[in-house]
């Protein structure tokens, strides 16, 4: 298929683009490089450096079989402080992409959504029919895009899939996580191992969990990419399907730190800090729908594998 990957110079987008190229697809990456890296665009993919909102119409006029939409702003704290960046950068930009998709008859769309659309869960594991009550503008902006995509699917026959990620981690060879502002636990811990950070903060050690620290569902980025390829194959005209992507099990902050210590061989000091407002004690996905309807099975659920792949990338790359 001829496919457009928006945000394909970022972490998840670049890994998925690499998988698509390896699978023999004709891939064009569209990225403004505001947070992505040009050297993350996989060989074999065409690269267009441009603002998505401005370029979507012209690029899609060339005729594509589908779009994988990763381009977005994704810092929760920033979204609270500057919500205008998220309503414009995520929602308005995605609307312009949807209009270009409609105008040029692009038949498929796979959207990079998030577990942040659910907010604080009433129960775990979280299913797709759980209430969606996002607690920050980032999650709210992604939920708004999900709603827009659903309406376009019904009205215009678009075959659409939204994939709601839980905690993505790991790396795919030379393609991995390197953000200017890092907020994710595993790369933060590995920065301590690299010596670029003094310690990692543990936000609360009195949560109602086995070791007192928060528990999260980590999914290897390669498993995530596999789900995107399956979503392209199974997308149905006139339907907007939503799937959670996670391993279905959780690891605590303490377990992540201990695993990073074991993998890297570094002591990695950890400092206790107060709980953060809005942090749920446990976030674990139910991915039964993706398994049943897409035939997706995560293959790399071992925490040591996830950390080892991330560490190999981190120690061989310059941020």
Automatic annotation (TrEMBL):
It catalyses: UDP-alpha-D-glucose = UDP-alpha-D-galactose. It comes from the Bacteria. Keywords: Carbohydrate metabolism, Isomerase, NAD. Its EC number is 5.1.3.2. The keyword NAD applies. Homodimer. This is UDP-glucose 4-epimerase. The lineage of its organism: Bacteria, Bacillati, Actinomycetota, Actinomycetes, Pseudonocardiales. The gene is galE_2.
